[in-house]
């Protein structure tokens, strides 16, 4: 595997770029093919979505499947990161045992395949529950993340807590999240203050959250910078979707919602974002593309390499 610089010897650097895999649906042969494609395009890393791999059942690792996945990873010159199942929610107090088990086995899976970072989405709640007890929900999430962070530390893994987008549940008024504002996520991470829990800043999500709440996305990016240890990036207009455009496959076409559009189409000021992003040591920048945009993966990776180079150059000059 490609050797990356020791994060402890670097300061505020993006150490590699890559992309999340497209649809896998349990096919480890698809992991092989997409990993080979990324390597051929000069990427440094790949991000795997845990639920799509078919290597966990009943919150337990399937040993033979995990062994096959580990071999696929080790045979390729790519670092790997892992995205835990999106439904994990440490503000769902009534079902926390399910979320806790899924999160812990995700940490175990990351350790098994040599992924140093595992991404988990920040908590969500109904608007009524949030209005009734925001401090209690935030405290509950911190307690769960602290325990998970302890488990991650023992496994040699870090948790990256990601800001969410205004998804259809948010748009319909059924859910909300403090992390729609990256500055609020930064405050939660500061209050948590756990060495094995960092932040994942999704620039597309931040742009959409800013559009929904009337915020400045650059200000949110800057607020998160001291806590950003992982990056997700794609282009988005910042216009939230509407209930009648509910399918993500349509969002890029309309220019709404979490478009997962290729870099370079001009929705976002990548230069300004880079200038606001003095990220933490050992950060990977991961491209997330809609399936219809996979043909533009090569061009998007070139834009992402330029973004990372600018962040690193600015960091070196600081």
Shape: globular
- What composes the largest sheet? 8 strands, parallel, barrel
**CATH architectural arrangement:** Alpha-Beta Barrel
Q: How many DSSP H or I helices? A: 12
Number of domains: 1
**Strand order, biggest sheet?**
1-2-5-6-7-8-9-10
Helix/strand/pairing class, anyone? alpha/beta
Query: Which CATH class applies here?
Result: Alpha Beta
Q: What's the name of the CATH homologous superfamily?
A: Divalent-metal-dependent TIM barrel enzymes
Number of strands: 10
CATH T-level fold name: TIM Barrel
Proportion in helices = 40-55%
From the alpha-carbon coordinates, what is the Rg to the nearest angstrom? 18 Å
Spatial gap, N to C terminus: 31 Å
What is the strand content? 15-25%
- Poorly predicted segments: 1-9
Order of helices and strands: EHEEEHEHEHHEHHEHHEHHEH
Can you give a write-up of this model?
By secondary structure, the chain is α/β, with parallel strands linked by helices. It has one domain (7-317): TIM Barrel, CATH 3.20.20. It is 44% helix and 15% strand. It has twelve helices and ten strands. An eight-stranded parallel beta barrel has the order 1-2-5-6-7-8-9-10, surrounded by six helices. The chain has a two-stranded antiparallel sheet with strand order 3-4. The longest helix is centred in the middle third of the chain and has 22 residues, at 134-155. It starts with 13 loop residues before the first strand and ends with a helix. Mean pLDDT is 94; it is low at 1-9.
